Amino acid sequence: MKTLSKRLSAIAAFVEQDAIIGDIGSDHCALPIALFKEGRIRGAFAVENKKGPYTRMKKAIDESSYPIQSSLSSGLDELPKEVDTLILAGLGGPLIVEILSKNKDKLQNIKTILIDAHNDRALVNDFLEKNGFHIADNVFLAEGNISYDIMKWNKGKPLRPYTELEKEFGPLNLKRRPKEWLSSLRKSLQEKERIFSLLKEENQKKAVLEKEIETLKGILYENEKSYS
User: Fold this and answer.
1) pTM: predicted TM-score of the whole model, two decimal places
2) What is the average pLDDT across 122-139?
């Protein structure tokens, strides 16, 4: 899909053939339009919760001529029952959990949830596991100076509960250890070590940071050991 960014193309690749998608925070509706153009989806419901972004989104939909439903609403408030795939991309983890929690009953009709959380991924992963979803696929990529951890969750409990480490970093990242992901971990480790060196007093913040540093070192050590 040449019209999409690297990030949106990765999300699009996770959409099942003939899905009916709900794109929450659809922006310019680029993803639903591209998926319709490729003949990948049967329907789409695009949501924005502010007048300005909604107007831009509606203009893009009207110009596309595709049968995309639009809504000026909050989260899943007006989500139709026929939607079977949710897309929540470019949002913070706490906001994603808030959106899903507010209309948890609507998750009954959802088969797949595609997540691109800016932060607090462990919070999102914990919520989805507790509400009957499992990680079916995952891609970690870098676009410019920004890294994205895109997850595909399908309906159904995982074969076993995810560990805290898996919730934080993703079980498939830990298993596959993609190059971009390892590079991101190294950068994160360097930054945390820099901050740690500046903290003079022993306090809870320093203790938490020290634990995070040890966790990152452990993951990176295991990776280096597997190639030695």
Assistant:
1) 0.93
2) 97
